[in-house]
Amino acid sequence: MSTNHNRQHDITTFRIIEIWINRAHSLKEAAEVFWKSYEQITRFTPAMHSLEIERTLREEAAVARSGLNMTYLYLATFAVQQLATGILTARNPRRYLPPQLECQFILLIEECGAKLSPEQKRLLQAIENSRAWQRLYPDMPHPLPKNIERILNRQCSAPCVVTEKEHEQLNQLFEQLLRLAYLLNEQT
Question: Can you tell me the distance from the alpha carbon of 53 to that of 55, in angstroms, rounded to the nearest whole number?
Fold first, then answer.
């Protein structure tokens, strides 16, 4: 009876982690579509100035760039969160993850056993702060007006634009969690 129960637990754990991995992959793929679009618009922006394209069109391109960048950030961090939650849930299917912990990426990721670089910690802290501000002020316009963006950057270090380096840090973090998830999957 005990062997059958352990086997059932292993099958359940395998299915749980597979579901979370698949969700995380889908989110990561969507995030990368937004990142590639952001890069294309960013490459085209200098040409817009040299072609003397109308100012309103350049402003619209800036708004689009900002929106693509922020959407990438949210999808990428949600993918990381899904992997971390999946790892913790697979380890203990009865574990309840309180909503306030869902946006505490550093605690969530460290609980999985992942090692964060100082740069990754700074980035995740900025993202956590940004999410806290958005929960407090959900009706803030996106992209933020420049004066509000400057205030938020000073007060909470929110990343208003993800850099190539930060993009790479999120990719490395995703891959590290993915390895932990697959390792957990192999153990079942």
Answer: 6
DSSP per residue, 85-150: HHHHHHH-TT----HHHHT-HHHHHHHHTPPPPHHHHHHHHHHHHHHHHHHH-TT--SSPPHHHHH
Phi-psi region of 52 (alpha: psi -120 to 50; beta: other; left: phi over 0): left
- Asked if residue 74 lies in contact with residue 101, where contact means CB atoms within 8 angstroms, the answer is no
pLDDT computed for residue 180 by the predictor: 93
pLDDT band at 157 (very low <50, low <70, confident <90, very high): very low
Closest CA to 110 of 29, 180, 31: 180
pTM of the model: 0.74
Closest by CA position to 27, among listed 82, 108, 66, 103: 82
DSSP category for residue 51? T
The model's confidence at residue 167, banded by pLDDT at 50, 70 and 90, is very high
| Residues 87 and 24 sit within 8 Å (Cβ to Cβ) | no
